[in-house]
Design a protein that fits this description.
Elements lengths: L15 H11 L6 E6 L1 H4 L6 H12 L4 E5 L14 E3 L10 H7 L5 E2 L7 E5 L2 H5 L14 H7 L3 E5 L8 H9 L10 E6 L5 E6 L14 H6 L3 E6 L2 E7 H14 L20
Parallel strand pairs: 1-2, 1-6, 3-7
Antiparallel strand pairs: 2-5, 4-5, 6-10, 7-8, 9-10
Length: 275
C-alpha cells in the first residue's frame, strides 16, 4: 500500500464531483462493473470522508454500472476445525479499511453470504454478482463475484493501494489450484442471512502465512495494457481490466504455480495448517 503524508490542514478538500471526474478520466465508464479496493488516507482530505468515496465510485459507474466493495471477515484463526460464524447484517469488515465498512453500512447495500470474502454491491447487476456466493467451492472461486467480474468484462480499481490488496489474485490462485493457498479439509460455516434465517453450509478456507508478491507483475500489467495508472485526488490509482489480468495471470500460474510468490521463496515441503 502506498504511504502518503497527511495533507496540510489548509489543503482544499476533495469532493464527490472531483472523485467522479478523476475516475472517469482514468477510464471508468457509466456502464462498467468495478470492484474497488481503496485507501481513504491516500486521497487527502475528503469532504464527508469514507461515505463520499463510496458514493463517488457508485456515481462514476451510474446509471447502468455496478460498484462492488470487499466486505471481508476472514482472519488467521479460521480453519475447518474453527469455521466462521457469519451474520450478513452485523459481521463487520476486518482489516480492509474504512471505505468498505462505510459501503457495508449503507441501507442500499446488497452483501453476499460468503463468510470470509463477501462483497457489497450497488447498481444494476448487484443481485447477479452476490447470488450464490455462499455455495462456491472456494471463497473466491467459480461463480464468486471475483470470477463473475471477469465474465462481465469488469474492472478492478486500486485507489491509493496496489496489487497487494487485489483479492482477485486470490481468485486466480484458486482457479489454478496452487498448492499453498487453501487449507485441506472442509468445515461447517454458520450463516445468518438478511432475514435472520440461519443456515449451515460446508466451506473451505484460505491458508494464512505464505508470503505473496502480488506487485511482481505490476510493470508487465502496465506494459501490456492490462491496467491504466493515474491519480484520483492525491491517490496513485490503478484501473485493471479484470478479464485481461485473469488470462495473463492464469497462464503464469499454469507454467509456475509460485508465480505470485516472492521469487526467492521456497515452499515448505509440508505446509500443514496455521498454528
Amino acid at each position: 500500500m502506498f504511504s502518503m503524508p497527511n495533507p496540510p490542514p489548509d489543503t482544499p478538500a476533495i469532493n464527490r464531483r472531483r472523485i467522479v471526474a478523476d475516475l472517469r478520466a482514468l477510464g471508468l465508464e457509466p456502464c462498467d462493473a468495478v470492484l474497488a479496493h481503496t485507501s481513504l488516507r491516500s486521497l487527502g482530505r475528503v469532504e464527508g470522508g469514507a461515505e463520499t468515496v463510496v458514493q463517488g465510485i457508485i456515481d462514476a459507474v451510474a446509471p447502468d454500472g455496478t460498484a462492488l466493495f470487499p466486505a471481508h471477515t476472514g482472519h488467521p484463526g479460521i480453519s475447518p476445525e474453527n469455521p466462521p460464524v457469519f451474520d450478513v447484517r452485523t459481521s463487520p469488515t476486518l482489516n480492509i479499511g474504512v471505505v468498505p465498512e462505510a459501503a457495508r453500512l449503507r441501507p442500499d447495500a446488497r452483501r453476499s453470504l460468503q463468510p470470509t470474502h463477501s462483497v457489497t454491491a450497488f447498481g444494476g447487476q448487484a443481485e447477479w454478482f452476490i447470488e450464490g456466493h455462499e455455495f462456491c467451492d472456494t471463497p473466491c472461486g467459480y461463480n464468486s463475484p471475483y470470477e463473475k467480474l471477469k465474465r462481465a468484462g469488469g474492472k478492478i480499481l486500486l485507489l491509493g493501494c496496489d496489487h497487494e490488496s487485489n483479492t482477485t489474485l486470490h481468485a486466480l490462485e484458486e482457479a489454478a489450484n496452487v498448492p499453498y493457498h487453501m487449507l485441506t479439509g472442509v468445515g461447517t460455516m454458520k450463516i445468518t442471512d438478511a432475514n435472520g434465517v440461519e443456515r449451515q453450509l460446508p466451506g473451505r478456507f484460505h491458508r494464512w502465512g505464505v508470503p505473496r508478491h502480488f506487485m511482481r507483475w505490476d510493470a508487465e500489467f502496465t506494459r501490456l495494457g492490462i491496467q491504466r495508472t493515474g491519480r484520483v485526488g492525491n491517490a496513485e490509482t490503478r484501473l485493471v481490466d479484470a478479464a485481461a489480468m485473469w488470462e495473463y495471470v492464469l497462464e503464469l500460474l499454469k507454467n509456475d504455480p509460485c508465480a505470485l510468490l516472492p521469487e526467492d521463496y521456497v515452499l515448505p515441503k509440508n505446509l500443514g495448517r496455521p498454528g
